[in-house]
Design a protein that fits this description.
Blueprint (H helix, E strand, L loop, with lengths): L7 H4 L9 H18 L8 H12 L4 H12 L7 E8 L5 E8 L2 H14 L3 E3 L8 E10 L5 H11 L3 E5 L2 E7 L3 H12 L4 E8 L3 E2 L2 H16 L3 E6 L1 E2 L2 H7 L1
Parallel strand pairs: 8-10
Antiparallel strand pairs: 1-2, 1-3, 2-9, 4-6, 4-7, 5-6
Helix pairs in contact: 2-3, 2-4, 6-7
Length: about 250
């Protein structure tokens, strides 16, 4: 089990879309509907749906919105969304994985390609960068959940693989197939997490200089602003000094 890691500042960027509440709710609703369609419409019987509902609750999404998204799947109503993964390179040779849920593959591919090309990056073939990442379970807790020792102990007991703690909070990694079980065990000790999801964890990270970092963040923001994009993962590391300069 590891303790501290600078990996936390990689995670900060994926919160950008969460600040845009209505856009975030739209993306969460889409994930809930797709999750409900992929199995039982009952969160207790469908681990993916339970994760989607918990993440929606963590962002204070109203219960009515959550139920409406589940009902949409049960009624077989609305569009059929397809899960697509895009891979590419950003400024400074950074590897990026973009996860999307779309009802129009051509539209999404065009938008993703445009975002990359306009912001110093280029889209690559599927599999071009994902070999440098591991598919893992990711559980995030605020710093208030407990000190590093308490969280580490709880994570070991729950069967997690790795813990990274900082003043911003705690990042807990699990095997992909153990995510549901580990998050349930942690919740009994630490309370409800901020988020629980499947993630792409880079095997190696790339240090990004100030000039490249500014362009990279524009690229990530452009991707996250797209309605079809659910999450953007990257292998970039930006120093605290550069982050402060960029504000």
């Amino acid at each position: 089990m590891a303790g501290h890691s600078k990996f936390k500042n990689i995670m900060h960027r994926k919160g950008a879309q969460d600040k845009k509440r209505s856009a975030a709710f739209s993306k969460l609703s889409r994930e809930i509907t797709v999750a409900a369609k992929s199995g039982m419409p009952d969160p207790d019987m469908n681990p993916r749906l339970r994760l989607a509902v918990n993440n929606a609750r963590a962002l204070s999404m109203p219960k009515d919105n959550i139920q409406r998204a589940i009902d949409k799947a049960s009624a077989n109503d609305g569009d059929d969304y397809e899960e697509i993964r895009y891979e590419g390179y950003g400024p400074g040779g950074v590897a990026l994985i973009v996860e999307a849920l779309t009802d129009n593959r051509n539209r999404t591919a065009t938008n993703i390609r445009t975002a990359f090309s306009k912001n110093g990056g280029n889209l690559a073939a599927t599999g071009a960068v994902s070999h440098g990442f591991e598919r893992k379970g990711l559980i995030e807790y605020p710093a208030a959940a407990g000190d590093e020792e308490k969280v580490l102990e709880a994570a070991i007991e729950a069967g997690a693989d790795d813990v990274e703690s900082s003043e911003d909070g705690h990042t807990i990694w699990t095997a992909m197939e153990a995510l549901h079980e580990v998050s349930g065990a942690l919740e009994k000790v630490l309370g409800e997490p901020e988020s629980v999801k499947l993630a792409w964890k880079p095997n190696l990270t790339v240090d990004v200089a100030e000039g490249d970092a500014q362009t990279l963040f524009k690229l990530v923001d452009a991707l996250e602003d797209d309605d079809d994009v659910q999450t953007v993962w990257g292998n970039y590391e930006v120093s605290d000094a550069v982050m402060e300069k960029l504000g």
